[in-house]
Design a protein that fits this description.
By secondary structure, the protein is an alpha/beta fold. It has 16 helices and 16 strands.
């Protein structure tokens, strides 16, 4: 993420270098470099449990942090693991500041992040701890960039919001297709879709409105509805001939069609971390679009409804009502079906909009993928020899394209083979 926007007065007056602080903090008395502590917030939730399972499978013993000590101890016992537990109000920056150290790697799955997540990332950045989360809220990622980039850079912290299904595979697919397209690429479009296993070829499966309900958790649906009341953004020129930059744009303003393996899929535009992270790595980009295509044939009708309600959402009362509605959606305790799969498609175009290259990534369901990706990031960042770039970054800039491909492979994410016989 290449925009440096806000300065922190405390960081300006900090004369000790971030690298020096971290070197001294990580060294034992004998001079050996210690491994960082992994701190997991939200382990008792659906996504958090998947992160914990992946960490334990990698031999890690994370510190569990949350409001209910008993629930965390019961969870650790269920996983047959002896884990340190810290009972903390995760919405209190002061409480978290007392807990976190510059030698920590912080993982957060506590959302909705615009409501509950800012205290954790702020405390991590100010402590100099590395930070990753599972947010799917593009507006949260932008807020973190604007508020904490200079703070994290000064403290030696690497902060990467949205290091899960949202939006690692899209950043990876976008980077891969831009590499494939070469220097002529100026635009990239990325679409997120869900499929199911056991229904024939996954690349030919067309998702339905029912899938959007049965393959997601109540918390995810709450986030999606709540996001309708938030201001969105896009990356493009604000007017013809002007330099590209982040511009305000409501979610679902447009619908884009992605064709792959002979199947056409529609997706509504949404704010994602790709808008922030890909221009950092590919500065020649003039436009980045991210689309959500979970709704299948209902995508365009829902987009029309979103456009009609957009003027109403300018009212603070209506926005508050939508947020309250998102917290009362039915099926909040229902777990997603087990046969869900992920599909992410990316298309690179030249300045005139002509397609140059396309690629697709397939992988496990969003929650399994998120658990694996966050665990991978934590293990990498916690290693004594890890060298990460301080500041707020997208996943490609944080780990490099080769590193991110390793993360994807570990999570079961692979490039799809677009057979010419498909879709006939």
């Amino acid at each position: 993420m290449h925009h440096r926007i806000f300065d922190d007065p405390e960081s300006v007056n900090d004369s000790e270098s971030a690298s020096g602080r971290h070197d001294s903090a990580l060294r034992k008395a004998g001079g050996a470099v210690e491994k960082r502590r992994i701190v997991l917030l939200g382990a008792t939730g659906y996504t958090g449990q998947r992160v914990l399972r992946e960490l334990l499978a990698r031999g890690e013993k994370p510190t569990l942090v949350g409001r209910n000590r008993t629930r965390m101890l019961v969870l650790a016992d269920r996983f047959e693991a002896e884990l340190p537990v810290a009972e903390v109000d995760v919405t209190s920056s002061a409480d978290l500041a007392r807990l976190l150290e510059p030698t920590d790697v912080v993982l957060s799955t506590v959302g909705p992040f615009m409501q509950l997540g800012m205290a954790t990332v702020t405390a991590a950045a100010r402590a100099g701890a590395h930070y990753f989360d599972s947010t799917g809220e593009g507006t949260f990622a932008l807020h973190v960039l604007r508020e904490l980039d200079s703070v994290a850079a000064a403290r030696g912290a690497t902060v990467v919001p949205a290091f899960g299904y949202d939006y690692v595979p899209g950043n990876l697919a976008g980077a891969l297709v831009l590499e494939k397209a070469g220097e002529r690429a100026r635009r990239v479009e990325i679409g997120y879709f869900v499929t199911r296993s056991g229904h024939g070829d996954e690349l030919l499966y067309r998702s339905t409105l029912r899938d959007a309900f049965t393959l997601t958790t109540g918390a995810t649906r709450q986030t999606l509805v709540g996001a309708a009341a938030e201001d969105g953004f896009a990356y493009r020129p604000p007017r013809p001939g002007a330099p590209s930059r982040l511009v305000a744009e409501r979610a679902a303003k447009r619908v884009r069609t992605f064709r792959y393996a002979g199947v056409s899929r529609a997706a509504m535009t949404v704010p994602g971390s790709e808008h922030l992270g890909l221009p950092e790595v590919f500065p020649r980009l003039e436009s980045v679009e991210v689309g959500l295509g979970w709704l299948g044939r209902w995508t365009r009708p829902v987009q029309i409804v979103a456009a009609l309600q957009a003027p109403l959402l300018r009212s603070p009362k209506v926005r508050a009502a939508v947020t309250r509605l998102s917290q009362r959606l039915p099926g909040s305790r229902r777990e997603p079906d087990r046969d869900g799969r992920s599909l992410v498609i990316a298309v690179a175009r030249d300045a005139a909009g002509r397609p140059l290259a396309r690629t697709a990534l397939t992988g496990p369901d969003p929650y399994e993928m998120t658990g694996s990706l966050l665990a991978w990031a934590a293990v990498q960042a916690a290693a004594p020899e890890a060298v990460l770039k301080p500041g707020v970054h997208g996943p490609v800039a944080a780990f490099g394209l080769a590193g991110l491909r390793l993360a994807a492979t570990a999570a079961g994410v692979h490039e799809a083979d677009e057979s010419p016989t498909r879709g006939r």
